[in-house]
Amino acid sequence: MEPSEVQRGLQDVVALESRICFIDGREGRLLYRGYDIRELAERSTFEEVAYLLWYGRLPTAGQLRDLTQRLRELRILPEPLRAWIGSLPATTAPMDLLRTAVSALALFEPEETRPGPSSIGGAQRLTAVLPTILGEFHRRRSGRPPLAPRPELSAAAYLLYAVLDREPTELEARALDVALILHADHELNASTFAARVTASTLSDLYSAVTSAIGTLKGPLHGGANERVMELLDEIGSVDRVEEVVKERLARHERIMGFGHRVYKVEDPRATILRRWSEKVGAARGNLHYYELLRKLEEVVHREKGLYPNVDLYSGSVYALFGIPPDLFTPLFAASRVAGWTAHVLEEYDDLRLIRPTAKYVGPTDLAYVPIGERPDDPGPAGAARPA
């Protein structure tokens, strides 16, 4: 087959079939394994959603109990890895820590890294242990005591405890649980695609997740909610929203938290997180961020016709918890790892090496010139020699 027209960024290219996630960008729907995200966010838990993503069905009460117990047992880090985290300088970037720690963790889990059915153990290990990695590092750099396992806490409550070193309230734990559900998967986003490309070579699950974390680190994929919070701090008050937005748009700058490559209407995750931003703010007696964001929505939609995406409100919820901004993207990873690993497992089942084609646009008729005859300044690499 001859290569067709180039689609920059693989826009609208259908690369594979999947049973995990469905996005209807025109209707604003997001489904995990056929279940609407709105219903899952209302009635489910992150542990239950992880089971759904991995196994393709909702668990029974006994299956959920067994998985929850297993995830709590897997929270403990191997001691050498824990010691390594403790040796890192406080200035280490959390995403660099996470990427390297996941890669190193494979040394302690040889059976669970192998491509195939046994990788489900690695999926569970990584989902359980990422909050521990983040908590251990943040506690060390903050001068706090080492992390205790706390097996009685849910995944969301444990993550808050690990990072904040305090008992989360019931509202906080549920708000984060919903955020973890909403971020758990989103079809072939850049990091998930990176994981599947790696898995399609029959590389191991830990390598695939390391690829995903490295991809999420890029500011065009992860970190948008951190940029939203920086914008809110710059604006400061509701009466300055219009002024700052118009100034940025006049400079052709992007307003983070708006627009999406797939959704043509409001991202359904943003709809849900908007409510939680208000709930958490009201519970803390602090609706400052919520009010700024509502005004920001109004101005950006009027000026650009753009709708909010998942990143607009998530940062405000995390900030109200007291989570440092540089942990926002690692927090994303601690949720998305469930989806990454589900896609890796699916890739192993439907294995075909992912190898797209590039349209070559360089020269085709250059003649080799011996090194002694080449000009001192040949010009840019790949440029044709002057006649």
Structure summary:
The protein is mainly α. The protein is 54% helix and 3% strand. The chain has two domains: 33-218 and 330-349, Citrate Synthase, domain 1; 224-320, Cytochrome P450-Terp, domain 2 (Cytochrome p450-Terp, domain 2), CATH 1.10.230.
Which helices and strands appear, and what pairs or packs with what?
Layout: E1 21-24, E2 29-32, E3 35-36, H1 37-43, H2 46-55, H3 61-73, H4 79-87, H5 94-105, H6 119-142, H7 155-164, H8 170-183, H9 190-200, H10 205-216, H11 224-235, H12 241-250, H13 268-283, H14 288-304, H15 311-321, H16 328-349
Antiparallel strand pairs: 1-2, 2-3
Helix pairs in contact: 1-8, 2-16, 3-6, 5-6, 5-10, 6-7, 6-16, 7-8, 8-13, 8-15, 8-16, 9-10, 9-16, 10-16, 11-15, 12-14, 13-15
Terminal Cα separation, in Å? Answer: 36 Å
> Could you give me the name of the CATH homologous superfamily of the largest domain?
Citrate Synthase, domain 1
Uncertain segments: none
State the helical fraction. 40-55%
Number of domains: 2
Mean pLDDT: 92
CATH architecture of the largest domain: Orthogonal Bundle
* Widest beta sheet: strand line-up: 1-2-3
Q: The biggest beta sheet, please?
A: 3 strands, antiparallel
- Succession of helices and strands: EEEHHHHHHHHHHHHHHHH
Report the C-alpha radius of gyration, rounded. 23 Å
**The level-1 CATH class of the largest domain:** Mainly Alpha
